[in-house]
Amino acid sequence: MPPVDSQVDRRRASQRVFAITTTIGKFVLTVVTTYLGLLAVTFFIGRVVPIDPALAIVGDRAPAHVVERVREELGLNLPLWHQFIIYVRQALSGDFGVSVLTTNPVMKDIARVFPATIELATVGTFIGAVFGVPLGVLAAVKRGSIVDQLVRVIGLIGYSVPIFWLGLLALLLFYAKLNWVAYPGRVDIVYEYSFTPVTGFYLLDATMQRQWDVLWDLFRHIILPGGLLGYFSMAYISRMTRSFMLNELAQEYIVAARAKGLSETRIIWFHALRNAAVPLVTVIALSYAGLLEGSVLTETIFSWPGLGLYITNSLQNADLNAVLGGTIVIGSVFIGINLLSDILYRTLDPRTRSR
User: Fold this and answer.
1) Given 22, 152, 200, 246, which is the most exposed site by the fewest CB atoms within 10 A?
2) Residue 98 DSSP label
């Protein structure tokens, strides 16, 4: 008869394996269900909008038999459930069709323009986190003071003011009047032929190639739209930081730290903020995902050649393949960042691992 301790160890090991398997299964099920829901929404949107994909390809003056033949080639004459299966299979393989506007495969166009959106959202999130976290901490420490009210007003403006209005006002002031920034776009036309992008991330490419004049020009182009997105990100991050810090400063370990004679600076920045940083990871990640999917108006105002501007131009030209393909890519990135932030949250906070 085996010892009791070995039986207990085997039982615990099997329970751990079962818990890990269950967690992985739930994770995979969540990803599959969410992504299928995204595909279902985009599919039915593509079927209810008043745009005929066949007419968008051949034109509204094409003969009826030509339109019908194109509809058959696209599978639009098949039952709806059959069309959805084909749509899911093509989407999973990265085949979103051909863009009517550029005559290129949609995925090729997205691979070309998406780095610009990632670069812009990264700059915006960096600015938002660098300024939002300290402001949130300061507002929590000075709760009820004029500093707290000022930080809350700044955040309220960030939530309330339409981004297109603030973008136009910023262009009028910093570009037209003060000439502190470059005109809308991503790079000056002077450098379009002397600068050769490699990765698609212009700031990284210019730094790697040590073209400092190009890097300065890129900075003058990105600082205004990136700063605008950073301001809206800062409003969200500062508000959530303030909320998390108020919760941490009310905990018993803060009282104990003060009773031990620790300095207020150490208590705030090395104890309270460290614990508040765990949920802040999720907040910053979701803010980044929000900038990736919500920078359409910013890219349009500043003529930023990213995915948002690509989708806008495609929508104006009834290019349904490009619109749906861009929507799926943005949705997929949002799902991925959301799941990644959840994994990081569980990794950094041991208390959530048993949930």
Assistant:
1) 22
2) B
Q: How far lies 247's CA from each of 128, 155, 273, 306, in Å? A: 22, 19, 11, 39
**How far apart (Å, rounded) are the C-alpha atoms in residues 289 and 120?**
12
Q: Where are the domains of the chain?
A: 4-92, 114-352
DSSP 183: P
Q: Residue 98: beta bridge partners?
A: 105
Burial of 73 (0-12, 13-18, 19+ CB in 10 A): exposed
Report CA 158 to chain centroid distance, whole Å. 18
**CATH 1.10.3720.10 correct for 114-352:** yes
Instruction: Specify whether the CB–CB gap between 170 and 225 falls below 8 A.
Output: no
Q: Give SS3 for 105.
A: strand
Tracing tokens 């039982």 back to the chain, one arrives at 11
Distance CA 187, CA 297 (A): 19
210: left (phi over 0), alpha (psi -120 to 50) or beta: left
Contacts of residue 255, Cβ cutoff 8 Å, sequence gap at least 6: none
Rounded to whole angstroms, the Cα distance separating 126 from 234 reads: 9
Sign of the four-CA dihedral 334, 335, 336, 340: positive
Which tokens is 156 given? 């309220």
- Are 241 and 136 in contact by the 8 Å Cβ rule? The answer is yes
**C-beta separation of 328 from 91 below 8 A:** yes
Measured in whole angstroms, how far is the alpha carbon of residue 104 from the centre of its chain? 25
Q: Dump pLDDT digits (tens) for 269-303.
A: 888 888 888 888 888 988 888 888 767 888 888 98
Q: How far apart are CA 26 and CA 22, in angstroms?
A: 6
DSSP type of residue 189: G
- Write down how long the chain is: 355
* Cα separation, 327 vs 39, whole angstroms: 10
DSSP 306: S
